[in-house]
Amino acid sequence: MSRHDHWRPVSLPPLRTTRYSGYPEYPQLPPIACDPLHDLHRVPFLHKNSEYRVPFMAESNLTEANGNSTTAESSAEKAHMAERHGDTAYDPGARSPADTHNDVPLTPTHAEEQPVERQEFMSGWPLYMLTMGIWISLFLSTLETTIVSTSLIAISDSLSGFELRNWVVTAYFLTYTGFLVIYAKLASIFGSKTMFIFALTMFTVFSIGCGSATTMEQLIILRAFQGIGGSGIYSMVLVIAPALVPKTEYGKYIGIISSVFALASITGPLVGGAISSSSSWRWVFLLNGPPGFVAIAIVAIFLPASKTERTTDFKTRMKNKFTRETLQRVDFIGAGSLLGASVLLVFALESGGTRYPWDSSAISSTFIFSGILWIVFIVWEIRLERKDNMPQEPIFIMGLLKDRQLASMMFTTFFIGFPFVTILFIIPQRAQAVYGLNPVQSSLSVLPLLLTSPFATAISGVLTSNYNVPPAHLILIGAVIQLVGVGLAVSIPLTGDHISASQYGFEAVMGVGFGLTLSTVLTLGQLIVSKENAGIVMGALTQIRVLGGTIALAICSAVLSNDLRAGLAGLIRPDEFGQIAESLSSINDLDPERAAKVRLAFATGYKRQFQILTGFSGLALLAALFLFSRHPVTVKGAAAKETPGTSIDSYELAARGSSEAQRNT
Questions:
Q1: CATH topology for the 403-626 domain
Q2: Which of 147, 275, 300, 370 yields a CA-CA distance of 20 to 30 A from 531?
Q3: Cβ distance 254 to 524 under 8 Å?
Q4: Beta bridge pairs of residue 53
């Protein structure tokens, strides 16, 4: 047997995860068993950019093989060292590989080494194609949140349901919000690729269903299912994107992905208005069909599967996934209570003062049951976090809110969602109700906001990535600018036959504020939490922003309806009010004097909405103040602390919300 057919163990320092630069020299060698003089050629030839996590070998194994007796370290110290480096607990009685080196030569094929983890990211055409598929998917789901803003009047006129118009938006947002974190959990069970394709298919199919609806009630129900698919698309992008590129490139990559929000925000109202004016509103939903199926094909081909999906066939994989053990991990109680609490709260706010009096038993009981479900959700999630013997993984880890910055981000995002989501809808509606503009003209009324918002988002990405500006500072500046812009919108003239120039200026200011805050919050969230919690925190930030916008839509809708009823009492007959409630085009049937008073009543109601949104913008600024820190987090500072081993599989573990990690710490 050649002397090179086995390795002779030597005593070397314990394992440390090391970033190697240049070619390895002897002092940098990992603690593998080798003859340093004759077996140096067995050491892997490392590329200067490669990163390895070398297996830990207990020092007792090495010293025993060399015939040395090292007694300086106690068993407790060795156990601590092994635990520190991520290995199993130290067992002095365990039979080590060194104990058996006389029985079986300690060679690379026989040594009991852990597999080397290498950090790998996508590149080249596979990355470009997958990015295109992700971009198309996210564009379609985001487009559905803005394209209906200028189509709602046409939809409500066609289906005779002006008072139910906001439910077309609210139904989508409620399920979109309720399933964001649920999808992240399901991805850890069934695989991110499986859940991404499922969400894309569901979104595309129900988009076609929405285009075929014949009643307002049908459309609302189908929109809810469409929102479930859209929620999965967004959630899966948050889970997958961090694993595609290194953290140093993540800011630029997420900027490319985030450009979808800019384009969807700009084109959504324009496309919706153009379709409603020149064709049937049904194409607002039907147009998702062809590109949706294209995105499904791209994701199916280019998205890497998880380890389980790569090593088993489809039939076996499906059989193994849908088991009692895997389903027990899903927090159905938390998901159901969160969704139920949100639906009941929005229903009470939407229906109070319109379909039911505020003091009616229907509204009171709805508020009460919503409050009960919110309490159930919070208590249940805390219990799951504290109990080790429960199989469910919590939807949200309440312990994360103990961090001041993370809690501040949650409240800031929640209150920013109030004006951001609502203003995208009330500005085009106001243009049609107050000035009598058509859908295309009303879509142009919100253009300054839509143009400045992505511009500010791009600027914030450059400042955080290239100039290392702390994201918290940009969030605070953006919150101030947003408050100024929304506050100035209160002064928009109530009368006139065209949109004033000052309104366009106010929208531009608001857009800068929104652009500096919304994407920067996600960037900061990615930096301040661990990899294990990244998926659930990103999903929670988006979820709470959309929830805030949904609640704001309900509040503003109720305020407008109540103001109209009070302002138009005695001016028009009940049947005329009913006609206006079903279709705004009925205003043109009134005589000019009464039509002008009706439009003034609408303008007054929209002014009240801006006043309410100004208050919530102030709360967003107050919450953002708690982000201040003497040593703020920066992109480059966080990248320096990045640990190796990031991959699609590891981020599927991150999507679980790290319930196990929380229980072990």
A1: Growth Hormone; Chain: A; (1.20.1250)
A2: 300
A3: no
A4: 117
> Distances from the Cα of 371 to the Cαs of 4, 348, 365, in angstroms?
72, 12, 10
The average pLDDT across 366-374 equals 94
- Which candidate, 598, 639, 629, places its Cα nearest to that of 403? 629
- Summarize pLDDT for 382-425 with one digit per residue, the tens: 888 887 778 777 777 777 778 888 889 899 999 999 998 889 88
Among residues 480, 334, 466, 318, which one has the least CA distance to residue 395?
334
Whether 60 contacts 48, CB under 8 Å? no
State how far the Cα of 429 lies from the Cα of 445, in Å rounded to an integer. Answer: 10
Residue extents of the structural domains in the chain = 1-119, 121-319, 331-392, 403-626
Give how far Cα 510 sits from Cα of 120, 270, 350, 423, 645, Å. Answer: 40, 19, 26, 10, 41
Residue 208 has pLDDT above 70, yes or no: yes
- Reported as a single tens digit per residue, the pLDDT across 103-129 is 434 334 444 444 444 556 666 777 788
AA identity, residue 51: E
**pLDDT at res. 199:** 94
What pTM was estimated for this model as a whole?
A: 0.68
Q: Which of 281, 58, 60 is nearest to 156 (CA)?
A: 281
Q: What would the CATH number be for the domain defined by 121-319?
A: 1.20.1250.20
Q: Residue 433 and residue 440: Cα distance in Å, rounded?
A: 14
Task: Give 309's pLDDT tier (boundaries 50, 70, 90).
Answer: low
Euclidean distance between CA atoms 172 and 647, whole angstroms? 32
pLDDT (0 to 100) of residue 34: 39
State which H helix or E strand residue 52 sits in: strand 51-53
